[in-house]
């Protein structure tokens, strides 16, 4: 079974060692991870990569995401996968239509509203009247922590891990690099649409993390322990995130088919 590799903290560099990546770690024996077991690589901090190691990841179809120190995505390295997937072709055709990007924006907002309405934390104490994402986000944060800024930092860190996972999932669904990473302004942005809606799937994990931090503040003082806890909580939610994305792509396929009739 393939698994993600998280690199941060003591990891200094990554080199190719036959059919595996060799991880050079400060003060410890080198680690070795077979490429055939990797689904994606998430890198946080300064980790040097050899060109051979990068090339081997691309050849094995393994995407990489590089995170900033606060956990937000800094950049993506994706294999140049060529796909014949019908959805990718339909999206390219949609983007060429005069109103295609605007119509895709409507679909994006509808998907995020769907995700908002599935977030139980928004409905504690009454009916949700304001479906604007920023208002909903502020409401969730205020309910999770006396300091919404601390909860926001955790949410952003989880979203960084989600971004790396989305690249892997979109490539696995047959979509090429064009749709498996953020699109520039003015382009159809499937990745951004999936990230915006998928972020709401992280709220239960965020709720547990905030509760643990309040109960065990000493466990959050060491950066490496924080990163490991974030990764564990994200991986626990990863199957639900993947299932949610499969349903979303299926709805998008049906939506595109309906528009073309």
Explain this structure:
This protein has 261 residues and is an alpha/beta fold. The protein has two domains: 3-62, CRISPR-associated endonuclease Cas1, N-terminal domain (Ribosomal Protein L15, Chain: K, domain 2); 86-260. The chain has eight helices and eight strands, in the order ββββββαββααααααα. β3 (20-25) and β4 form a beta hairpin. α3 runs parallel beside α6 (190-198), α5 crosses α6 (190-198) and α5 (148-172) packs across α7 (203-215). The longest helix is centred in the C-terminal third of the chain and has 38 residues, at 223-260. The protein starts with a strand and ends with a helix. The model has no long low-confidence stretch (mean pLDDT 91).
Concise structural overview:
The protein is α/β, with parallel strands linked by helices and 261 residues long. The chain is built from eight helices and eight strands; from the N terminus they run ββββββαββααααααα. Helix 2 (86-96) packs across helix 8 (223-260), helix 5 packs across helix 6 (190-198) and helix 7 runs antiparallel to helix 8 (223-260).
Mind sketching the topology for me?
Blueprint: E1 3-7, E2 11-17, E3 20-25, E4 31-34, E5 38-44, E6 48-49, H1 51-59, E7 64-67, E8 73-77, H2 86-96, H3 100-117, H4 133-144, H5 148-172, H6 190-198, H7 203-215, H8 223-260
Parallel strand pairs: 1-5, 2-6, 5-7
Antiparallel strand pairs: 2-3, 3-4, 7-8
């Amino acid at each position: 079974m393939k698994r993600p590799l998280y690199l941060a903290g003591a990891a200094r560099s990554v080199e190719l060692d036959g059919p595996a990546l060799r991880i050079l770690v400060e003060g410890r024996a080198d680690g070795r991870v077979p490429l055939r077991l990797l689904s994606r690589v998430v890198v946080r901090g300064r980790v040097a990569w050899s060109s051979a190691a990068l090339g081997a990841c691309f050849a094995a179809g393994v995407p990489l995401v590089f995170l900033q120190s606060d956990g937000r995505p800094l950049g993506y390295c994706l294999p140049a996968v060529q796909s014949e997937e019908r959805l990718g072709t339909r999206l390219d055709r949609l983007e060429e239509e005069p109103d295609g990007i605007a119509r895709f924006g409507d679909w994006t907002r509808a998907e995020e509203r769907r995700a908002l309405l599935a977030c139980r934390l928004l409905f504690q104490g009454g009916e949700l009247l304001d479906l604007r994402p920023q208002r909903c986000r502020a409401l969730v944060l205020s309910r999770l922590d006396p300091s919404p800024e601390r909860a926001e930092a955790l949410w952003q860190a989880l979203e960084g891990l989600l971004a790396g996972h989305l690249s892997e999932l979109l490539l696995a669904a047959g979509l090429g690099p064009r749709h498996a990473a953020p699109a520039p302004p003015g382009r159809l942005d499937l990745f951004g649409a999936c990230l915006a809606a998928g972020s709401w799937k992280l709220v239960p994990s965020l709720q547990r993390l905030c509760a643990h931090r309040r109960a065990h503040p000493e466990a959050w003082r060491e950066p490496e322990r924080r990163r490991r806890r974030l990764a564990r909580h994200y991986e626990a939610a990863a199957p639900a995130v993947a299932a949610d994305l499969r349903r979303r792509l299926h709805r998008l396929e049906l939506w595109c088919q309906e528009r073309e009739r």
